[in-house]
Amino acid sequence: MLRLPRLRYLRPASPREAAAEAADLGTRAMLVAGGTDLYPKLKRRQFDPDTLVGLSHLGELRGVRGDAGAGFEVGALVTLSKAAAHGALRAAYPGYAEAAGLVSSPPLRNVGTIGGNLCVDTRCNYYDMTYEWRKSIGFCMKKDGDICLVAPSSPRCWAVSSSDTAPAAIALGATALLAGPDGQRELPVAALYRDDGIEYLAKQPFEVVTALRLPPTDGVRSAYVKLRRRGSIDFPIAGAGVALRFEDGIVRWARIVLSGVGSHPVEAKAAGEFLAGRELTPEVTAKAAELAARPAKPLDNADLAHFWRKRMVRLVVEQAIDKAAARA
């Protein structure tokens, strides 16, 4: 049985206090809310802090406020299951609600938070193993080693971003509120990530995600489609978040963002630009899906064969576009 290491647990009175405590302790501390990703990794010794700064008791981070006309602010501690089931949120942003409802399994969605899923660690078959397994192969660049075992000649880590909600949020133009020791700032969710398997977040490690802001819907239709081996639990083999705005039957604006095919959520800008100004025919959708698959770079470090996953990107994008377009 894998056990947690001995840890000190802090209960700060506010997000700013949490950020200050984490900043003071540096690499010795980690922030934790639902812990559905963090606790298993602590058991596998993928992280080695001696202190956890708890957030789950901060009630101010749990509300859902706003409407489709003004936009929504969703507290970072709102659970994935509540976000998925929230009636007004589902009506305004069905793509985001779908993404929240497809994360992992029902028990974990009841605990996992929307803030935590935005910040979920990158994954790799060589990294997400027990300490003993990783030691037996000499470790990897992401933890305790100096070589990326997926691409040994590469100077960087290629662990994969597997957040379901991040692509949906980026496609909708959402922003994240971050609390630090000295105040709060707002950052586009698209700017929250780096293309690096190790340093995958652009925010400071001590900054606390306090809320997700979704803009007014303004006629935007959205959808999220996820491909995985099983219908529950698994991370995405490929995922696609799509947002479309129509005028008189013509796509005026489109944004497509992928999950599970790179070290950060991958925006398919060429595909979105191609759709703008066109009527959405099957041929146009197929071409957009082909363009969306080009920046996807799945490697042999996640479930199933990487060349097959590359082919499946076109399928999930096509399905997501059709799904979004069919919504009123």
Describe this structure in words.
The chain has helices spanning 15-25, 38-43, 80-85, 87-92, 94-101, 106-109, 114-118, 131-136, 165-171, 269-275, 282-293, 306-325; strands at 8-10, 29-32, 51-54, 64-67, 71-75, 175-180, 183-188, 208-214, 220-227, 238-247, 250-259, 266-267, 278-279. By secondary structure, it is of the alpha+beta class. A five-stranded antiparallel beta sheet has the order 4-5-8-6-7. Strands 9, 10, 11, 12 and 13 form a five-stranded antiparallel beta sheet that branches. A three-stranded parallel beta sheet has the order 1-3-2, covered by helices on one side. α10 runs antiparallel to α11 and α11 (282-293) crosses α12. The N and C termini lie far apart (50 Å). The relative contact order is 0.13.
Radius of gyration: 19 Å
CATH class of the domain at 224-328: Alpha Beta
> How much of the residues is beta strand, in percent?
15-25%
- What's the number of helices? 12
Number of strands: 13
Q: What is the CATH superfamily of the domain at 224-328?
A: CO dehydrogenase flavoprotein, C-terminal domain
- What are the low-pLDDT stretches, counting only 5+ consecutive residues below 50? none
Main β sheet profile: 5 strands, antiparallel
The sequence of SSEs as H and E is EHEHEEEHHHHHHHEEEEEEEHEHH
Fraction of residues in H or I helices: 25-40%
Overall SS class? alpha+beta
